[in-house]
Description:
This protein has 12 helices and 21 strands. The strands form 6 sheets. A 6-stranded mixed β-sheet has the order 18-17-14-19-20-21, with helices on both faces. A 5-stranded antiparallel β-sheet has the order 1-10-9-5-6. A 3-stranded antiparallel β-sheet has the order 2-4-7, with no helix packed on it. It folds into 3 domains: about 1-170, Immunoglobulin-like (Sandwich); about 175-195 and about 240-445, Rossmann fold, CATH 3.40.50; about 205-240, no CATH class. The protein is an alpha/beta fold.
Amino acid sequence: MKKIVGLLYKNLFLTNRFFAGLTLCVVLFLLAFFFPWMGIIPELVFWTLLTLILIDLLLLYKTAKGVFAKRHAPERLSNSDENDLGIYIENWYSFNINVGIIDEIPFQFQKRDVWFKSTLKPRERKLINYVLRPTKRGEYEFGNIRVYVKSPLGFISRRYNFEQTEMLPVYPSFLQMRKYELMAISNRLTDIGIKKMRRIGHSLEFEQVKNYVAGDDYRTINWKATARQGNLMVNSYTDEKSQHVYCVIDKSRAMKMPFEGLSLLDYAINASLVLSNVALLKEDKAGLITVAEKIGAVIPADRRPTQMNKILEVLYREKTRYLETNMELLYSTIRGVIKQRSLVVFFTNYESLPALERQLPFLKRIARFHLLLVVFFENTELKKLSEQPATDVEGIYIKTIAEKFAYDKKLIVKELTKYGIQSILTSPQNLTINTINRYLEIKARQKI
């Protein structure tokens, strides 16, 4: 008996319809006090309401388990992407029910309104889909699923609790990586902004001898094969393979700056993941180095099938540190780890020319042995300020300072170019596309 009472006490909730009926009864009793001709009408309404409530209780509680619910979630979530989740629910009652569902999502999302409403017929099953967009890597704890059931009468609501506590890791943007991979396989990279690069000459990587077709370079005609076959034959060349591509990610405080919920470090990590995957698809070898005041992870370049999993697991755990980058240690690590000329893509951020000048001696040393590509970020908020018209003295001052910082970014590009160091100045949202474009351009021009 105590168990039944406790169950009713914990999981029984009164609805707006119940309070509306109760209010109607109170009003009728008040009116009957002033208008005696109403007689027993208030009492009839009261006892009718009480009877309906008891029937509602019987309908909801005569079945021990009236509904079943379960969360459908992937094994891991993709950072900065919209991840699809779902709640499967099944009605075991013999009548139509109205349900309200609360899914206890992780606190990192800061959402308190994850409430789903639905109507189910007897024995009907439904899958309610929704999306979540995490903005930080790490472990996210999901709680229970709570289902509130109302019968057609709707005076009370019964709550069902389904324990489904689970911990889901949020990895770097592997959904973005797969999207670019599928685009590359289907030759549709131009649909998302990847440019087609015109080849300058051809590489020395011979592929095959094939029949000449209109548009082939006549300079590649193989005259010996043509004489043997009696048809024009041309040599076919392909991109040089097994070149080393290293992504070097700066984890210092310069990469802590936020943009649309993500830090610059997260943008760099997502772009590195996609670039490494594209490099492997091009049959190059991909490697990774992370650095702040000390060296973090070092993954030597390779193109084994397990390489992407290694890179993904390392990037999942990386966090921003709060000291400046030790460029001397980075230089010695690159010299010790990278044994042949490689493409080194250094993801960092500079807000002023003096910040670059402190690191420039080491960047020049790295560029002597490798093809160095420095990737850093536009300050999009300052860019917006510099483009806004000034209406007063304070506005002129703010606009001038913003333009100065934007001009410093352009000076940084010129300073790097002066020493033969390639660079990309990009907004965070265009980082991945601009980086892949430059990698494909470098491949096409055979600069590695």
